[in-house]
Structures are given as C-alpha cells and as structure tokens.
Amino acid sequence: MSPTEGTRSDTAPLRRRPKTRAGKRALERRAPKLNENPKRLLGVRAMKASRVAVECVRDLLALRKPDAVWLSRRNELRPMDADTEPSLEFLLQRNDCSLFMLASHQKKRPHNVVIGRAFDGRVLDALELGIQNYRSAQSFRGQGVAGAALGTQPCLCFLGEAFQTSAPHERIRNLLLDMFHGQAVSAVNLAGLDRVIVVAAVDTAQLHFRQYAIQFKKRPDGDTRLPQVQLQEIGPAIDFQVRRTRLAADEQMRRAMPDAKRPRRLATAPDSAATGPRPSKNIRFDAGRFARVGAVYVPRQDLSQLPLAKMNGLRRRSRERNGGVG
C-alpha cells in the first residue's frame, strides 16, 4: 500500500493576548526561537484506541523522557483531518508541546498510531502508521535485558534506499529524527552513548523500528585502545505500515527551518544606512533536499597579466629590439 501525500495551506496561528506581565513572559517562552528549548512530546489517545496502540505509544513516549507528557483521558482527535485541528493545537499549547503521538483504533485502520509536529502553534505535518507486529520493551526486560538510562542521547540510524530516493520518505526521516534525537548538545561523551535507534525502510510502505543497547566489551586480541562494540536488542520492536501522510507545504517548511530564520550579518560601517538584513543573492531553496543552495560566479582570468619568471633568453631578445642598449 503506497502512502499518500497531502499538503496544508498556510494559515495564521491563533494568538492569545497577554493580560499580565507574567502571561507575556510565558507566551514569549513558548514562541518560536532560533535556538529552541528542548521539544516536548505529547501522547494522547483517541475515543477508540486498542491496547496494542496505547502500549506502543507509551513505549515510544518512554524514549523521550523526561520531555514527554501522557494524557490518559480520551479525546476526539483526528490529526489527518482538518476539522479536529483546533482541539489538538489547544492541547499542544496547553501542555507546551510541539510533538504529538496519538493512539487510535478503527475497523478500517486497526492499531493505528499518528505522529506529528507543530510549529508556531499550528500542526505542521503528520504521519499515520499501522502496527503490524509489536513487542514491548517490558518483554525484553523480562529476559534479563536492562533498559536504557533516562535522558541519554541515542544514536539514530536510517536504513533503506527509500530514505534517499523518495521525497515523502525524506520528510518522514526528518520527522522521526525530530521525534527521537533528544536534546541538542554541543558535545557528546562517547561513554554516554548507550543505545541506538534503527529505522529500516523495507519498501515505501514498510518501516521497522528497533532499539539496541550499545555494549563495550574487551577485544579478544587484547587490544585496549578500542573496545569491541556489541548491540543487544532492548525494545520496543515494532513493524509499521505507512498508511497516510500529511506533509507541510514547502513555504511552511522554509519558515519552520532554523536556517531560513537565521538573520544575516548586518553592515557595521558608521555611515551605513542599512536597518535590516542584507538581501541574499544567488541563493535558492532546494525543496527536494530542504536545504539552501548557493551559486558562486568566478570571473574570467586575464592570463596576459600573469607574472612569470624572467629568463635570460627573453632579456637578450629585449636588448636586440632596443638596438643593443641595455
């Protein structure tokens, strides 16, 4: 079953007018920033949700702790439809979350999980996944496998040709990376890397989600400079089926990307009348790679003015042309 792609028009977000100074500061903390705060993940359940979908969502929420919130109360939410967006956006703003995960169950779409993210108070994109096979993280711990420590930085590995050749899967990879990468840090202690999350795209409609613990063992040859790395599965282990995708328009992605919002260096001359950022020339946005691409123009060189080493033979010819003087 091939995923379908949907887009959404760019609409202005609903704003609350602060009535107090404390309320103004609270809204400023929740406003979009260039250097964002750690993103929080909101887990909710629909009016009809299966036990498998709920346990799967709670296992995925545990990977984001302590930046995760679970609402056990049932809500009438359908992120893939536009009519229930205000209710979902209200819950996101109320709990100060920009990522969400919904568990639902229908006869047409059993054991359903919808993951997505929001920008500036509005739903940006969403991905609907169906659970085909699921093994909880608790079942791995029952076999004597220790779980990952709370708040550690995971490694993420995306396998499959679809992540490189399919435009929807490139956006899916970006969404999953935003969902599970953890907090942004300037440096990482290699000894603290204790787990790796692997997402494999078997084809355009199948995603396999696995988590492994990174273990450092002694090398059999006795070399102590580099340890031997082994992976042990700690769960959850989930086989997803990609059902529906609701991807943001390119204009929304340009506004949501940090590079698109980064101000350029202003002129520092005292007589400069520039009051805003410099215009960007020869720079365009590549929608396929979601990156800025620049063009550099090099002028043609005049090789006649190229300085060369003066040789004795050239000097002799110059004296002959000047009448033997020199």
Short description:
By secondary structure, the chain is of the alpha/beta class. The protein is built from nine helices and 13 strands. Its main location: nucleus.
Can you offer a commentary on this structure?
It is a single chain. The protein has 326 residues and is of the alpha/beta class. It has a domain of 223 residues: Brix domain (Rossmann fold). The N terminus is likely disordered.
Structural class: alpha/beta
The CATH homologous superfamily of the domain at 35-257 corresponds to Brix domain
What is the CATH third-level topology name of the domain at 35-257?
Rossmann fold
Q: Based on CA inertia axes, which overall geometry fits? A: extended
Largest sheet: 11 strands, mixed
Mean model confidence by pLDDT: 81
Please provide the ordered H/E string of secondary-structure elements. EHEHEHEEEHEHHEEEEHHEEH
Q: Roughly how many Å is the radius of gyration?
A: 28 Å
Query: Which architecture of the domain at 35-257 does the CATH hierarchy give at level 2?
Result: 3-Layer(aba) Sandwich
* Number of DSSP-assigned strands: 13
Secondary structure blueprint with pairings:
Layout: E1 4-6, H1 21-30, E2 41-46, H2 51-62, E3 68-75, H3 85-94, E4 99-104, E5 112-119, E6 122-135, H4 137-141, E7 155-159, H5 162-165, H6 167-180, E8 195-203, E9 206-217, E10 228-233, E11 237-246, H7 250-256, H8 258-261, E12 283-286, E13 291-294, H9 312-321
Parallel strand pairs: 1-11, 2-3, 2-4, 7-8
Antiparallel strand pairs: 4-5, 5-6, 6-11, 8-9, 9-10, 9-11, 12-13
Pfam family, one: Brix
Region (Disordered): 1-34, 254-283
Biased composition (Basic residues): 14-24
